Amino acid sequence: WRIQRRHGFDLIFIIKRMTRGNLRRSAALLQKVRGLGESNVATGSAKLFDMSKSSAAFNRQLSTLSSQFSSHSSFLTRFEKCSAFPSVSAVRYVSLEALKPSDVFEPRHNSSNDEDIADMVKVAGFSSLDALIDATVPQAIRRRDGMPMGKYTEPFTEQAFLKYFKTMASKNVLRKNVIGMGYYGTYLPTVILRNVLENPGWYTQYTPYQAEISQGRLESLLNFQTMICDLTGLPVSNASLLDEATAAAEAMGMCLSLSRGKKPRFLISASCHPQTIAVCQTRADGLGMTVEVLPDSEIANRLSKDVGGVLVQYPATDGSISDYSALVAAAHGVGAKVCAATDLLALTMLKPPGEWGADIAVGSAQRFGVPMGYGGPHAGFLACCDDHKRLMPGRVIGVSQDATGKPALRMAMQTREQHIRRDKATSNICTAQALLANIAALYAVYHGPEGLLRIATRVHGLASVFAAGVVGKLGGGVGGAGAGEGPFFTLASSSPFFDTVTVSIVAGKGKGGKTLDADAVVAAALEKGFNIRKVSDTQVGVSFDETSELADVDLLLQAFYQAAYTGNAGSSSSAPTFPPSASTWAEDSTVAALETLPANFTRQSKFLEHRVFNSYHCEHEMLRYLKRLENRDLSLCHSMIPLGSCTMKLNATTEMIPITWPEFADMHPFCPVDQAAGFQQLFHDLAQQLCAVTGFDAVSFQPNSGAAGEYAGLMAIRAYHAANGEAHRNVC
């Protein structure tokens, strides 16, 4: 250090370069040169630094210097033979290497240094890492050229990565999303955000196949199952699936299995979310099933002995709530099962599917604290009757006893699963979302039944105020179209609703000849900062959620008003007055009438009565509960987990930080594409990188799990053969 301070160059850097950054060898070399004398060390290092500026010369020196550093004499001899040494006092070098950022990602993420790698390679019986790879990877497939990574020519440091992603995130335009369709804004309690979602003690564990080191998560997943069973009114639930659409496809497969393959037809209500219908249609092709999408009113007429099941949405994608008891009776009459895709928050107020006869209930737990994330990941669920549990896909957590007779948790009925039954498993493409299921369960634990009901009541109330505004403040009606120049908006259905209101538009000319259609209303809402759903050319949908406020109702009604009545030359004096603030009429009888659910739809049964859902409603109690669960698990916070698995790749902290940024977390998957430029850049760049790595020409990000990706790949190969007239090539 005296030499470095006096002569102004980086001796430590020189030594590190000589030893290729190996810290142990650097320390040993530094210890040796301390006894050589200041003049000799400084002079020799200065000369070596001159050579380092010519990388070829420096690399040639590096190839021979290591052996010569074994003794003091060889070190001195090497530099005594050099001529034309610069004056040491004149040397004032600033190392460019030393000026580079120090937060380099790779050494922080991969702890093995050169000496560690050399030792491991030696134990394996090889002289170098290249020799080991040459012996391991066949030469015919060994890649020796670099991978073209486009604009990413140099690795990011951690801070540069965060800065880059901040710039990317800023390209996503945040609007208030009231699109619905199964995705809703939600508030994740900060005690769960900080202590679970952002806590590696929760997100780095392995799949809980080894119960002894997974008791914390198993308890939380058992809470998830209890929550699903209570809310759906069905006795058995699994511990999550991939999402609502794939859960519906799994239910469809269950219906086929329950009929032993003899009932291949499956009827789906047109009132289901469109993505759910699409996934079921795709999956049905692989299962050899026939899917028919029908209006609710026609399903009963299409029932026959070859129908394995029926899928309905409760509440429907347009928000309406229907009484399916008659349909259930008709379906059961021909031996078909009834599946209900449902909403957990709505079920705190509505009669649960199990009470009106549904055999299977599916859905998403997303609105229980999980951000939309432009479509995922979210935890799906599937609950069913007790008679069907052996054919239910996914893992099930059960209560058992340990060797001492004490209560213990484990994964039950694993004999149904792929890792045991392989091709005879109940499902080969079901995937759990354990972290998101835990978050949803903990959301219910923190709020409790009363808290969830308060949230649901508030959401339903806001939807009712909005609907009353359409009816009473914009000159609309219910269930019919207006005439002449108004009213221009009516409620699309007279059925009760929970959180979603679909509005019909009297398409054509508005006041002053202005074109009025769904696009005009969507545009007016966008000007107010909202994304609403375009259902058709003459219908739009508005869905309220936990993040909605009364002020949002005002802005939305103003948008509807402006779409119809303003901005027109010669606007008629018959236009209604500009809607007053909802706070002045939210308690009117019109609102109360819309807010009141019919008795046959109202939930009478209690839910979430277990002690765990009624004990941890203040932060310090919840924090202690979370910590107790965390301490019962083994995660990467405690040790390495030596298992070869697609789930065992540690996500570095820096990589995890952006997932909770609002620009990524709060994007609705059906928002306009031009609002998601950051996500589009992410998809484009990642696709280029994966193509470079794999050698393929295109990438699909649609499958949201490894199993779903494998299935998608097989289906693509199958479709390729079919397109070439070789559909008979169906053996894999």
Would you mind describing this structure in some detail?
The chain has 28 helices and 17 strands. It is an alpha/beta fold and 732 residues long. The chain has four domains: 2-100, no CATH class; 111-138, no CATH class; 190-443 and 610-642, 3-Layer(aba) Sandwich (Aspartate Aminotransferase, domain 2), CATH 3.40.640.10; 453-601, Aspartate Aminotransferase, domain 1. The strands form four sheets. Strands 2-8-7-6-5-3-4 form a seven-stranded mixed β-sheet, with helices on both faces. A hairpin with a 5-residue loop joins strand 9 and strand 10. The longest helix is centred in the middle third of the chain and has 39 residues, at 434-472. The protein is globular, with a radius of gyration of 32 Å.
